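Thread: "does anyone have the structure for this chain?"

Original post by V.I.:
We have the sequence but no experimental structure in hand. Need at least a predicted one for the grant figures.
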Amino acid sequence: MQGSGAMRRWTTPAAGLLAVVVVVVLGGDFFGLRTRLFGEQAPEPVAPVTSEQADAGASPDASPTATRVRSQPWWQQMKTLEGEGAATAEVNVDDRALQWRVGWQCEAGTFTVQASERDDAVVDAECPGEGTGYVTGTGAATLDIQATGAWQLEVAQQIDVPLQQAPTEAMQAPEAQQVARGSFYDIDQTGRGEVVIYELADGSYALRLVEFFVTPNVDLEIRLSSQPRPETTEGFDKPASAYVETLRATTGSMNFAIPDDIDPTKHQSVVIWCPPVQNAYAAASLEWSQ
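Reply from O.Q.:
Generated one for you, tokens below.
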């Protein structure tokens, strides 16, 4: 089997899992480990991405400039594939990617996925089943899929650049209104930027983070609170707060739908909450329009 381009830095699945741990620890500079190991040298400027989908192309409304600021590593979707029996697919992994993964499901028989210029299989399984195979490498590659039944693949790449999304069309519609706004301040960690809440034409609500940054960590949550200005983790009433969504990236400008069962007008602040360490990282007090 010949690939469509050169791939570099292949690893075994076990090494790929180790890479996940290394990326999380060093990417977030937990406990200053990255600084102690590699020093204070600033990273090279890179252009943010403008979509959660790698092949979506740049938004005409977004013109991100290069920045040295990095995000907690996050997964950008590349391709969704499905079929029955054998198939091939081309992927092109960004040169800035830390690693990429193949999430898979199969229904019956056997299922293997081989990446070009790699000796061992990314996936080698009996079906039915599901799982994830990790690969460290960048550039173009061919996936060779062998199956005796139906299957699905989700291919994604992990990057640490900001996500700079333009406002959604619904936010920019004439009927949409900005109904609340606030600026982030520090609690246990650093938070910068603004949050804007929109009431959309259909009566639903959306939340937008603008030029946002928070100290990187995994699985940070956006929560709405009835407290006007939480100042400490101990003083934040988490059980009474409402979960909106998990942050995709820890820096950039991003859009989030507020769940229909949450009435944001009953809340007075937005809090960035870290479940792994049970800390309130940052918050923004909301000023509602009259």
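V.I.: this helps a lot. The mean pLDDT is 87.
O.Q.: and The chain has two domains: 13-158, 167-288.
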